[in-house]
Amino acid sequence: MEPTRAAVPPQASAVTIAVTTGEPAGVGPELTLKALADAASRWPQARFVVLGDQPLLAARAGAGGGLAGEPALAALAASGQIAFAHRPLAVPCAPGRLDPANGRYVLDLLDHAIDGALAGAYDAIVTAPLQKSTINDAGVPFTGHTEYLAERTGTARVVMMLAGTGAHPLRVALATTHLPLSAVSAALSRPMLVETLRIIDADLRRDFGLPRPAILVTGLNPHAGENGYLGREEIDVIEPALAEAQALGIDARGPYPADTLFQPRFLDGADCVLAMFHDQGLPVLKYATFGEGINITLGLPIIRTSVDHGTALDLAGTGRADAGSMIAALDTAVTMAVHRAAARRAG
Ligand SMILES: NC(=O)C1=CN([C@@H]2O[C@H](COP(=O)(O)OP(=O)(O)OC[C@H]3O[C@@H](n4cnc5c(N)ncnc54)[C@H](O)[C@@H]3O)[C@@H](O)[C@H]2O)C=CC1
Ligand SMILES: NCC(=O)COP(=O)(O)O
């Protein structure tokens, strides 16, 4: 697969990126600061707005050593590239200790970023990880950023795609996201798969410069159903969807058995794998790319990237969490925003 990070045109226009710092008890706040210290210097054309509770960010700034407290935030802001938009916590927060009282705070950060992006104030949003359970414990039904972004932007269908950015430029998109496994088969339909393939094809062309993305599609069942002896979803749903997508000019191939698809001789020359469910595709991707992978929501009217990991409560406040994925998410958001701005200018 071709690398996800595209080159940025030399005369790139300025872009503004909102960063939500996520679950306050997790690693999001400290990784945001660490990653921005790295990314801002490499992206002189970018401005970053960090959304979060300022005292919390100041407290986490020193995690693992280095400059701490308000002086650390002031040092980051000194270049003029990084601004802090204070959004207050509901209650004080200790690293690693979840408190449902702050569940709505996490959503407030997200709402502010989404509203700003829809209004044109932000060219992209980058989300640090949140704890899905805490938001539910706060009384708000919540399955993930992906579904929330779809709902808040009025988008009928979005696609979660994770991508490696370093030595393993694998991309894995998901037909279903945060669903119990028992609900996956019923959620798959021909129109839904065709729309999923259409979104992957369109966004890989527009944002990644791939002229005709080759998409490899997994089956659902072991051995892709073994000619119907191990399940019929391949015959009844996936194959008809592939035929319809191919008739639309989409280079979609399959269905392939998921257990044998992820090897170089199949992946070389392909641009994306479409897996049928979360834990069919993501374990492979994370095994190959953890620490440098990113999560992109395709099909939205706004750009959203994120990390490939969760809140890592066991590492929060220690400074030991790896900022590689957050750096990659920032890099990708900037390059996507710059390319979209250039495409808009070109008409
Ligand atoms: N984008 C998002 O908001 C995401 C949120 N989550 C949420 O995070 C919460 C915790 O999920 P888990 O399954 O425990 O996964 P996790 O990714 O938080 O942790 C899994 C393991 O990986 C380690 N790890 C995670 N990030 C790391 C980093 N940056 N550097 C070094 N080690 C790291 C952790 O210490 C832990 O041992 C859940 O509520 C989940 O829903 C999970 C994935 C993405
Ligand atoms: N495993 C990826 C994941 O759960 C990310 O979810 P989201 O919060 O980005 O929708």
UniProtKB/TrEMBL annotation:
Pathway: Cofactor biosynthesis; pyridoxine 5'-phosphate biosynthesis; pyridoxine 5'-phosphate from D-erythrose 4-phosphate: step 4/5. Its EC number is 1.1.1.262. Its main location: cytoplasm. It catalyses: 4-(phosphooxy)-L-threonine + NAD(+) = 3-amino-2-oxopropyl phosphate + CO2 + NADH. Belongs to the PdxA family. NCBIfam families: pdxA (TIGR00557), PRK01909.1 (NF002520). Homodimer. Catalyzes the NAD(P)-dependent oxidation of 4-(phosphooxy)-L-threonine (HTP) into 2-amino-3-oxo-4-(phosphooxy)butyric acid which spontaneously decarboxylates to form 3-amino-2-oxopropyl phosphate (AHAP). This is 4-hydroxythreonine-4-phosphate dehydrogenase. It comes from Chitinasiproducens palmae.
